[in-house]
Amino acid sequence: MRDLKSSPQGKLLIYGATGYTGMLIIHEAARRGIDFEIAGRNEEKLAVLAAELNVPYHVFPVGDIEGWKASLKGKTALLNIAGPFSETAEQAMEAAIQFKVHYFDITAEVDIYRLAESKDAAAKAAGIMLLSGAGLFATYDPLVLHTAKRVKNPVAFRAAFKYSGGFTPGSVASSSNIINAGLLVRKNGEIKKLNEAPSAAFDLGDGPEDFSLMPLGGVVLSFKSTGIPDIEEYFKMALQAESTEGGNMKFEEGHHKTGLKSERSKILVEVTGEDGTVVRSMADTPDGYMPTVTSAVEVVNRALNGSYKIGFQSPASAYGAELVTSLLDVNITDF
Ligand SMILES: NC(=O)c1ccc[n+]([C@@H]2O[C@H](COP(=O)([O-])OP(=O)(O)OC[C@H]3O[C@@H](n4cnc5c(N)ncnc54)[C@H](OP(=O)(O)O)[C@@H]3O)[C@@H](O)[C@H]2O)c1
Fold first, then answer.
1. CA-wise closest residue to 26 among 35, 62, 99, 104
2. Residue 64 CA, distance from chain mean position
3. CA 168 to ligand 1 centroid distance, Å
4. Are 158 and 233 spatial neighbours (Cβ–Cβ below 8 Å)?
5. Could you give the C-alpha distances from 11 to 126, 303, 306, in angstroms and in order?
6. Which of 120, 193, 242, 330 is the most exposed place for a label (fewest CB within 10 A)?
7. pTM value?
8. What is d(CA 225, CA 144) in angstroms, rounded to the nearest whole number?
9. What is the mean pLDDT of the chain?
10. CA–centroid distance, residue 42 to ligand 1 (Å)
11. Residue 62 in contact with ligand 1 by CB distance below 6 A
12. Alpha-carbon distance 201 to 280, whole Å?
């Protein structure tokens, strides 16, 4: 039975609960005493999960406005975990705006952040917060703000993300969208697409390693939270992917099944100040998808408890640099 004394005020709808990350998130939401209902398009899977957690469920395709109307009745927030988000975010954001509930998702697709940004005025008019990127970016974006605060007048940042873990089918589909968005950077405050992918070396504690340019979302989200005009983001996998017949990595509980010892994921942020000072901060997190799960539930829980800013927000523009230090099992090193 849930502890009513620690129950938050608002009620949550979780759409896309039947996926790998969805299942982890609904168990974490239940553990934290959040009052929620689940939704998605697959009745069979939803019925099993709803029975297990003793919560109501709603079955409807993402484009069904009547489904949204019925399921969002009495809710404070919607957490969309159905990805690839290119197929679900537009409809879910519009439903959140129409039925006046705060919107969250866990996407890493940069085009979805731009979509949320484009709906800023509509979200403000509805009095709701639109926060796309409440997953891993709830660590990354406040880390950028944290690092930026260590110099006077930050003018540029570079980030290097070394990911340790596997990928689900939803993530593989989302990765194509990230790659197809192109080699995006921000220069003098404007998003630009590069023709060739530069690589750069970063030292995340194991000596210099080469990373490839990849827009992680900071070009939109951390520009929102810091206003830093020059942004470059880089990525590499910590372990070599092991393919299955279907082309996806073997995956269990968010970890690799390569037999190799799993590492923690690491995000390094390097900020340059106007006077040329360079500072670096690094966050290390558990491998796999658990950081996304705990972050998303933490951020959504805050909104359910009445802590939100209306309009398009990033994790740090809404909740500040301190968000990163409040997350479970995230260590920050400044150097
Ligand atoms: N940035 C981060 O921190 C982070 C971390 C983890 C995951 N993610 C993203 O979150 C998304 C979900 O990941 P996952 O691990 O749960 O993937 P998954 O195990 O493949 O599950 C995908 C989920 O999305 C639903 N879905 C997909 N397309 C849909 C559509 N058109 N309409 C309605 N529902 C749809 C699926 O429903 P069915 O069960 O009916 O197929 C399922 O519930 C992916 O895009 C992934 O990249 C981001």
1. 35
2. 25
3. 8
4. yes
5. 18, 10, 11
6. 193
7. 0.93
8. 9
9. 91
10. 13
11. yes
12. 14
Q: Residues with Cβ < 8 Å from 263, sequence gap 6 or more?
A: 164, 238, 239, 287
DSSP letters, 145-171, are HHHHTTSSSEEEEEEEEEE-S---HHH
Of 78, 151, 145, nearest in space to 318 by CA: 145
- Domains of the chain and any CATH numbers: 4-134+292-320 (3.40.50.720), 137-288+324-334 (3.30.360)
Closest C-alpha among 178, 159, 129 to residue 270: 159
Task: Specify the amino acid at residue 326.
Answer: S
- What would the pLDDT profile of 222-270 be if each residue is shown by its tens digit? 999 999 999 999 999 986 544 433 334 444 444 434 444 568 999 999 9
> Ligand 1 within 6 A of 86 CB?
no
Distance CA 130, CA 114 (A): 11
- Ligand 1 centre to CA of 172 (Å) is 10
Is the Cβ atom of 60 under 6 angstroms away from ligand 1?
no
- Summarised one tens digit per residue, pLDDT across range 167-223 is 888 888 888 888 888 899 999 999 999 998 888 999 999 999 999 999 999 999 999
d(CA 256, CA 327): 23
Written as six digits, the tokens of 298 are 């933490």
* Residue nearest atom 40 of ligand 1, based on CA coordinates: 42
The angle at the Cα of 309, spanning 113 to 140, to the nearest 5 degrees, equals: 45
C-alpha torsion 154→270→283→323, nearest 10: 10
Site to probe by mutation for ligand 1, drawn from 14, 23, 41, 62 as the one with most ligand atoms within 8 Å of Cβ, is: 41
